[in-house]
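[Q] Does anyone have a clean structure-token version of this?
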Amino acid sequence: MRSGLPALALAAAIAACAPGCRYLANRGKDLTDIVAPGISSGGGIGGRISATRLVAVEGIAQKDEWYLGWRERHQRWTESGYGIPFAFWRMPSIRDGEKPVRHWYDIFTTSRRLHEYPKRPELEDRRHTLFIFSGGRGLRWIDFLDVEAGISALFGGVEISLRPGQVVDFILGWTTLDLSKDDTPAN
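[A] Here you go.
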């Protein structure tokens, strides 16, 4: 019985590598998705912190801040956002793009943040009213547990995100379940 265990492990490894090791490459990428660091350059000042994407406190004004790091399998991305007090009357946009629709209740908006990722067709748009998530578009449910912190100081900034949903995606990925829908299919 014990002598068959190494042979079984070897057979499992060969089966995993059969489609060009895509399976193992996806597990490695899932592992790198757990922590998302970034440094930025551009026009922003202030700070933000969120205990999940459901609750966020932002005191920031940020326009087209260009990030370099690793987030959602992208090495670069662009963010624009407004927090207290700017979010009461301002709406962010990426470059000269369309601004989100403004509603009467936006006077209670405590933060509004846009993310543009090069490989995603839709902007990620998050809104918090009185610090609680109150809507958006282009959001993935697996990212709602993300814990984020960032600071910008005119010429640049830093941010870090810890992503518990990606831990679950990494673990379940070994069973071939892809909760993030970000694995590269085998050829």
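[Q] Thanks! Anything notable?
[A] The beta strands are 35-52, 55-71, 74-83, 109-116, 124-129, 132-137, 147-162.
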